[in-house]
Amino acid sequence: EVQLVESGGGLVKPGGGSLRLSCAASGFSFSNAWMIWVRQAPGKGLEWVGRIKSKTDGGTIDYAAPVKGRFTISRDDSKNTLYLQMNSLKTEDTAVYYCTTVDFAGRIYWGQGTLVTVSS
Amino acid sequence: EIVLTQSPATLSLSPGERATLSCRASQSVSSYFAWYQQKPGQAPRLLIYDASNRATGIPARFSGSGSGTDFTLTISSLEPEDFAVYYCQQRINWPWTFGQGTKVEIK
C-alpha cells in the first residue's frame, strides 16, 4: 500500500523564517518515482508547488513562480524521503502542504498534509 | 499553463438526486485528467483518474467521462457523505493545474 506521511509544519514568523518539510514514502519504488508538492491555503483551492524527477530521469526540479528562488525540493532515495526547504517565508505561504506521486497506471497518491502557518 | 474551469461553482441538490459536474480545459489534456473529493480538514481523495477510471474503493455511483478539453463527473444518486467540494486536475503538462472547485451542498 502506498503511504506518504508529511511532517515538519508549524508556526514561523514572516520575513526571515524558514522551515523544512519532510515526506516519508513507503509501499512503492521511491527512487523511480517523480514526487510533487501541492499546497492549499485556508479556504482556497489546490496549487502546485514543484516537482522533482527521479535520478534515472535526470532529477530535474521545477518550481511554481510564487516559490521559485525561496523553496528547494530535494530527495534522499536511501531514506525514501522527499523534502521541501522553505526560506524567506511570506504570509501568503500559509497553507497545508501535501506530497504526492503518480504511478505507472495514472493513479495519484496524496499524503495527509502538514500545516505551515506564517504569522507574526 | 493549462487553465481548468469548473462549473457550476455550487450545486444545491437533495440526497438521491443526480449530480453532474463539469470541467473545461484551456487546451487538450487528452485523458490525463482526474477528479477529487475533499471534505473539511481532509486531504483530497482521488475519485477518478485518467478521465474515466474509478480509483480503488470508490463506489460505482461515481463516474467520469470526457477527453480533450471537456470532462464530466457524474454522481448517479447522492448519498449524505457525498456533500463536499470536488476538484478537477490535469497532469499532461507541468505544472499540474487544478480547477477552482465545485461545492455540492444539501438543498
Mean pLDDT of chain A: 97
Report low-confidence residues of chain B grouped into runs of 5 or more. none
- The CA-CA distance between the termini of chain A, in Å, is 40 Å
The class by helix and strand makeup of chain B works out as mainly beta
| Most extensive interface | A-B, 20 and 21 residues
Number of strands of chain B: 11
- Portion of residues within helices of chain B: under 10%
- In total, how many beta strands of chain A? 11
Based on the structure, what is the oligomeric state of the protein chains? heterodimer
CA gyration radius of chain B, whole angstroms: 13 Å
Attribute tags:
heterodimer, A: 120 residues, mainly beta, seven-stranded mixed sheet, four-stranded antiparallel sheet, B: 107 residues, 11 strands
Short description:
The complex is a heterodimer of chains A (120) and B (107). Helix content of chain A is 0%, strand content 50%.
